[in-house]
Amino acid sequence: MAIVDITVIPIGTKSPSVSDYVVEVQKVLEENKDKINYELTPMSTLIEGEMDDLLHVIKQVHEVPFNHGIERVATNIRIDDRRDKKVRMTDKVNTIQAKLRR
User: Fold this and answer.
1) Residues near 80 by beta carbon (within 8 Å), at least 6 away in sequence
2) What is the residue range of 87's domain?
3) Of 21, 63, 86, 100, which is the most buried if we count CB atoms within 10 A?
């Protein structure tokens, strides 16, 4: 299982706000919740799942602004793909929290 940190940046919008695009991205993620888990953060979205599913969802998410009339999109993707053991987003956070309590 891998974890992806993704930020989709529509370029050339009429407003500095991009919340309408974020809403549409979240709808795509919700449509794929049978294959992936996701978490919206203030600066990006985290997605976890199997690599093939993640890459498929990333392509769908990248297309969202194009589907709404934007002609240029920059998408930043960071992938954490650990193969020695299965690690979920919550596991990583729980590990840090447990170490802080020591």
Assistant:
1) 2, 3, 4, 5
2) 2-101
3) 21
